[in-house]
Amino acid sequence: MTELLLGTKKGLFILEGEPGGHFEVKARAFAGEPVEYALRDSRTGRLVAAVTSAFYGPKIFYADDPSGEWVQAGGIALPEGGDDALERIWVIVEGEDEGTLYAGGDPGVLFESGDGGANWELNRALWDHPTRPDWEPGGGGLCLHSIVPWPGDPQRLALGISAAGVWLTEDRGRTWRQGNEGLVAGYLPEEAREGATSLCIHHLERAPRRPERMFMQFHGGVYRSDDAGQTWTDIGAGLPSDFGFPLVLDPADPDSAYVIPLAADSDRVTPGGRVGVHETRDAGSSWTERGDGLPRRDAYLTVLRQALDRRGEGAALELYFGTTTGEVFGSGDAGASWFTAATHLPPVYSARVAR
Amino acid sequence: MALVRLRGPLKQRAGDRAEHAIDGGTVAELLRELERAHPAMDGWILDERGLIRRHIKVFVNGEGGGEDTPVASDDQVDVLPAISGG
């Protein structure tokens, strides 16, 4: 049985099903409220959800039973009395230390919890970074949406911030440096691209069995790094469009990545009305469209940056993605074939598979 | 003391009580005191900057108010989510 956690515009939906079949809604929480992201901590089973009420602001809640009481976590706020307010939590990620979770949000902020999500603390080194006044928000805000631990090494972490680039630490977040070499901001005038820091990262992932290898969906470009995020090489050639948001990897294969291209910055739907997940198995030298079972005509869908996830690996890799029109598609065979897992849901902001 | 009236989730987080008699010279002072008395409300009305959240409306004796609106001891202050949408 596979459990899907869907953050939607109208609450958290928890679905269960088997690959190839219909997924049933088993629970719903935060009815009517936007849930940007939710995960089930694989170590404890605890559910942790980021909810942004239009009225009451962004919060994190946690629960052991989704139909039971959700408790508001402490510490999800910026320092009082400043010029900024927390706008949104974009992502929650398991850290490498027991009980550690990270959360990323707007305006470009990282929170850490050492107790499984009950209490959080702002990472001050990133908050106080001297370059922060120069950071520019992307269209979705100054969002810290990608938090990428290094398997087995809690000292090392990579972050993706739109549009403030890649940030790397090797001392558990006490100091941060940028990792942007090779990224080309095609949305800037040519003469302004050299050394630009307003870099619109859309999604970052790390290959767990070769952690110095990372993949990135950029705002116009798909990139690979073989030196832990310091330098980047464009691998977008061969895709119908190098614009898109989500990206996942097959953990068994460091040469693998999956992306879902959208037509363009100015036209954020599946290109040509054809839904396709594109896969590389040679580190980006070539891409193969995986669309068997997906809508192939008259389908102009949008898949947001956190709305693609995976479970398992190798030939048994399961993939799931949700759309802003409320469909969820899945694959139980590493993308070779696809099925419709759910329809008629609210716009899907995030899809997370319990592992 | 001014009388602060809450509804919905704000009422629930304030001990499930709709009416609260609170001392304070301005709307912001009243709301900060309300948060102090009910920590579960922390961050639900005022953000980190001390500003009333964009989609929360505060009325003092039926007139729209802001953080600095003066409040007298017999005033009635309503805090409610704004009507949004069309």
Class from helix and strand fractions of chain B = alpha+beta
Please write the CATH class name of the domain at 2-249 in chain A.
Mainly Beta
First CA to last CA of chain B: what distance? 37 Å
3D shape of chain B? globular
Largest interface: A-B, 17 and 17 residues
CATH topology of chain B: Ubiquitin-like (UB roll)
Radius of gyration of chain A equals 19 Å
- CATH class annotation of chain B: Alpha Beta
Distance between the termini of chain A: 11 Å
The structural domain count of chain B equals 1
- Provide the CATH topology of the domain at 2-249 in chain A: Methylamine Dehydrogenase, Chain H
Radius of gyration of chain B: 12 Å
According to CATH, the homologous superfamily of chain B is: Beta-grasp domain
Task: Give the beta-strand count of chain B.
Answer: 5
Average of per-residue pLDDT values of chain A: 96
Q: Give me the oligomer status.
A: heterodimer
Sheet with most strands: strand arrangement of chain B: 2-1-5-3-4
Helix and strand element order of chain B: EHEHEEE
What would you note in describing this structure?
The complex is a heterodimer of chains A (355) and B (86). Chain A is mainly β and 355 residues long. Chain A has a domain at 2-249: 7 Propeller (Methylamine Dehydrogenase, Chain H), CATH 2.130.10.10. Helix content of chain A is 1%, strand content 41%. Chain A is built from one helix and 28 strands. Chain A has one helix spanning 124-127, and strands spanning 2-8, 11-17, 24-29, 35-40, 47-53, 57-63, 71-72, 88-94, 101-106, 109-113, 121-122, 143-150, 153-162, 165-169, 177-178, 201-206, 214-218, 221-225, 233-234, 243-248, 257-262, 277-280, 288-290, 308-311, 318-322, 328-331, 339-342, 348-353. Chain A has a four-stranded antiparallel beta sheet, with no helix packed on it. In chain A, strands 4-5-6-7 form a four-stranded antiparallel beta sheet, with no helix packed on it. In chain A, a hairpin with a 7-residue loop joins strand 18 and strand 19. Chain A is globular and about 50 Å long. Chain B has 86 residues and is an alpha+beta fold. Chain B has one domain (2-81): Ubiquitin-like (UB roll), CATH 3.10.20.30. Chain B contains two helices and five strands. Chain B has helices at 8-13, 27-37; strands at residues 2-5, 19-22, 56-60, 63-65, 76-81. Chain B has a five-stranded mixed beta sheet with strand order 2-1-5-3-4. The longest helix of chain B has 11 residues, at 27-37. Chain B is globular, with a radius of gyration of 12 Å. The mean pLDDT of chain B is 94. The A-B interface holds A 54-57, 59, 72, 76-86 and B 9-10, 40, 43-45, 47-51, 53, 55-56, 81-82, 84.
